Amino acid sequence: MPYSVLCQAFTDIEAVTSRLLIQQIFTTLLRQIAVQNPVDLYPVLYLASNDVAPAYECVELGVGDSILVRAIGEATGTNPAMVKKRYEEIGDLGDVAKSFKSKQRTLGGFFQKSVAPKKPLTAAQVLHVFREIAQTKGNQSQKWKVENIKKLIVQATEATETKYIVRGLQGKLRIGLAQSTVLIGLAHALALTPPTTLCPHQPTLAEL
Question: Which segments constitute the DNA ligase ATP-dependent N-terminal domain (predicted)?
């Protein structure tokens, strides 16, 4: 599933305050995924919960702001000092990343009209990179993290994707989607979409 679809749901959820509406938006998304490609439920549920692995693995995601500022700057061709200054002004690094990505796309569209479109990021790809970042340790880990975060931002086809990539890496989506709501949404999706329709092909562990 394109990561942009999940980000649109995040945007819709962030725009409302009613818990019932949030639950409805998320349940609808899960039902659509369940019908189209049930295997995508796995990465979507993790990303919506701001987790990258089961709790028993004790893997936590929380990338430092300095790493994210560097990655945003390098990915968008912006001086990191400017990224940091903008962050101090508005207080949301996700929105900062979205802003600079939007400017980059506007300039890119003006000067490079013939460039072939990029393949969209998928939710599974984003989760995979998030998990690798969370598990990477050692002397060269910061450099590796900057490079791989930069690749995600560059590959993002929508500025909104950049916003939630950065927020996700910080470990705080800030959209009002509680883990309990994620679980209720999953329960409702499974109840409203019969299992025979939900998953005619049971995915193997390798596919998950």
Answer: 2-187
